[in-house]
Amino acid sequence: MKSFLAGLLIAYSTWLAPGASDSQAAKSGAGRDGVREETLTPAPTFTLPDLDGKQMKSAELKGQVVVLDFWATWCGPCLAELPTFNRIHEKYAGRGVKVVGIAVQSGWAEDVKPYLEKYKIKYPILIGDDDIVEKYGVVGFPTTYILNKEFKVHRKFTGELLDRNRLEREIESLLTESNNTKERGEK
Asked: Number of structural domains, the chain?
């Protein structure tokens, strides 16, 4: 049954346009003055083990821009993106951005650790389960979420990120938004 579901996920992610973003992440509507307002949805909370068994809680990520990468060891496009997430981590770690990989349908920590070494992954990797996949609505791999500092979904990408610059633009927009909010003295 698991191999059937894995095959179904592969077929779906291949069918889906690569790099497609999911506009369901933020719902828009017209405000009283006719200006469109975005209502960001809170990201689901989680507690997941890292590759050493230490539990990471999503609450630890609040206050940072978060890039969540849902990936699998058997997913070619997922593996192709790992160097991109390494570069994002190196470039933005000092600016309040946290990259977190969530390996799902890939076995246990000892099954994932060789990929950490092979791809020289420098950011935290957590071991996900069916519950986290369901909570986040992951239907294909890779799936990438960008969360704002309040741990709300800013953007969701399903499929391989063909335009890596777009990911950086989204991160930069959140960092700029955060800096502008600080300058205005808002929370």
From this structure: 1
